[in-house]
Amino acid sequence: MSRSSEAHEVIQAALNEFGPELAVLTSFQREGVVIVDMVQRVAPGTRVLTIDTGRLPEATFDMMRTIEQRYGLAIERIQPDPAEVATMVETQGINLFRDSYPQRVLCCQVRKVRPLAKRLEGVPAFFAGLRRAQSDTRADIEIVDRSSKPVKISPLADWSADDVLRYTSDNHLPEHPLYAAGYTSIGCDPCTRAVAAGEDERAGRWWWETDEAKECGLHFSPDGKVERKVDVLLREILERASV
Ligand code: SF4
Fold first, then answer.
1. Which tens digit of pLDDT belongs to each residue from 187-198?
2. Is 216 designated active site?
3. Residues 224-239: pLDDT tens digits?
4. Which of 91, 104, 229, 231 falls between 20 and 30 A from 213, CA-CA?
5. Are strands 144-145 and 76-78 parallel, antiparallel or unpaired?
């Protein structure tokens, strides 16, 4: 069975199990566009969600418009809580992610993780374009991850980058303009760069971070418990934002 037939089987089984409340979550990289295409062919009108962090490159908005026109749908933009962003920027600066690993994770929590978790409440399952070959941290992803809430379905988990390129080319799918500029992974504008030949696919994300810096995230609360520094920072932001 071909890669795309297998992916179609996964998508069809998920649609049968979870019905019209299923959604596609994408940032409009090639994998996400492949998923949107496959799902819209089987179930036109399936919701497409994306996280608009407030720091996306303009080219991503161009891609959104292209996808909306091609499939005749309105993409749902998930946005962070304005009070949380304002408090974070006021207390930490707009580019806090450059200062330390905990501050980078804090920014991702406020702009991506928290708004996504809130939006996905009530959604039983969603499709994502993750592949095992993209990085070591993705090497063990499940095609249907039922430990995730909501259930996360990755129909392309076994695909190679070439499989994605072949499907994209065979089906004349639009491509994010930043691929032509040397990007292999596309996210927020200040945290993504083009990669050099031979570099890892994800090397252009948070490229300034070192493994040592990532080890420095632990803190001690007043009662002596170990806390991640990012949890301390996030608690402060949430407390100030709710005043
Ligand atoms: S990728 Fe960068 S700008 Fe985007 S949410 Fe994370 S730290 Fe913030």
1. 999 999 999 888
2. yes
3. 565 688 888 999 999 9
4. 91
5. unpaired
